[in-house]
Amino acid sequence: MTTRTLIRGGLVITAADELHADVLIEDGRVAALAATGSAAAASWTADRTIDAAGKYVIPGGVDVHTHMELPFGGTSASDTFETGTRAAAWGGTTTIVDFAVQSTGRSLREGLDAWYAKADGNCAVDYGFHMILSDVNEHTLKEMDLLVEEGVTSFKLFMAYPGVFYSDDGQILRAMQHGAANGGLIMMHAENGIAIDVLVEQALARGETDPRHHGEVRKVLLEAEATHRAIQLARVAGSPLYVVHVSAEEAVAELAAARDKGLPVFGETCPQYLFLSTDNLAEPDFQGAKYVCSTPLRPREHQAALWRGLRTNDLQVVSTDHCPFCFRGQKELGRGDFSKIPNGLPGVENRMDLLHQAVLDGHISRRRWIEIACATPARMFGMYPRKGTIAPGSDADIVLYDPHAEQVISAETHHMNVDYSAYEGKRVTGRVETVLSRGETVIDARQYTGRAGHGTFVHRSTCQYL
After folding, report:
1. Could you tell me where the DSSP H helices lie in 150-275?
2. What is the pTM for the complete model shown?
3. How many Cα neighbours within 13 Å face the side chain of 5?
4. Which residues contact 43 (CB under 8 A, 6 or more apart)?
5. Is the distance from CB of 82 to CB of 121 less than 8 angstroms?
6. Helical H runs in 39-95?
């Protein structure tokens, strides 16, 4: 039995267009758009009509960098796939791509199956996986081909975290060569982890144990150097490269220089680098621990370069790197030793609102908001136009957004399973009102109507920019 939903009278905003249009949904997909008041739109009938007058009608957000239930530093991220995807929906995000982890000495298959088991039947919105490569060898390189066929088409490597996720330049080169052959996109955590470990050891020996030293030892130059090195390795391998969570002006400059040469090099930043700074890391009474993440927060003056990179398309995507740890009992593991503070911030619920505030603040346009938060992430990771836009044939992942509603971001009202907000007390204008995932209502006029198990695995094609 066909079910039809009609969204009437809103301003439809995609990366390409803004138009006052009605949207007809049939069986979970967008069936048609027509100008509001046109004869075509007037002729449509539906089982359910949603009045979007005065609202934006936007594609559901696509957050391609989350870590639900990630084991790290002797604990685990506090959001499960159920709580994390529910919070994502509250924030207007209808697709996440999380990271499955290969344990050293184990197969990619084993790691991926463990993440399928965590997510399957538990997600409120759709999800996909990237694969973290912790152990590059002949066997795991062969496995990469099988994962690409399975719709896991991106692979993350770390130049940081020696002894945990770290790969050396030879392993990175081999993985990049393999990605160049099978179409897999290599994602890079670009920080010189070997050098950082030396600086951590020296800082602790001097008695510098507070959270602010986390940012001081993970130096800007060591992010820029690793970004440069990753780009050169990708050039040697003939491989595209996607650098995650870019935080520093000097790293943006490396990406821009590579892109000026026409190289297939891409960059992502996150809201924490756009809105927070080392001032937060320096908050007294160990409160700075709430803001420990890697790459670290930078001095405020780096923000202008990140916004400029987003405007010039030297940075293409804003994801959250959502990896929440509660302040009590988790972040507190690092009292007296900043190197033991679990790295990560909560944010999957805040991204769309913070970026809308950036529109109001004059940093980006409305269409660029949708481009960096919905369309480009979907294209970058092989999900477009099924995800990331509102067009005939697309999944009906649609958000009704009230651009005038005011809210104060707070742990008291958020839905992430974490005991603090990184943006506590921040006033923003704009708020998610209603969210549809594949035509099914997940948030209905600020009421949660979704369910665990609605979200399904997204089989991704390879990067659509190559």
Report:
1. 169-182, 193-205, 212-217, 220-237, 249-260, 271-275
2. 0.98
3. 19
4. none
5. no
6. 39-42, 81-90
Question: Hey, is 440 helix, strand or coil?
Answer: strand
Tokens of 332: 């507190």
Cβ pair 22, 49 in contact under 8 A: no
C-alpha span between 158 and 152 (Å, rounded): 18
Per-residue tens of pLDDT for the chain, all 466 residues: 779 999 999 999 999 999 999 999 999 999 999 999 999 999 999 999 999 999 999 999 999 999 999 998 889 999 999 999 999 999 999 999 999 999 999 999 999 999 999 999 999 999 999 999 999 999 999 999 999 999 999 999 999 999 999 999 999 999 999 999 999 999 999 999 999 999 999 999 999 999 999 999 999 999 999 999 999 999 999 999 999 999 999 999 999 999 999 999 999 999 999 999 999 999 999 999 999 999 999 999 999 999 999 999 999 999 999 999 999 999 999 999 999 999 999 999 999 999 999 999 999 999 999 999 999 999 999 999 999 999 999 999 999 999 999 999 999 999 999 999 999 999 999 999 999 999 999 999 999 999 999 999 999 999 999 8
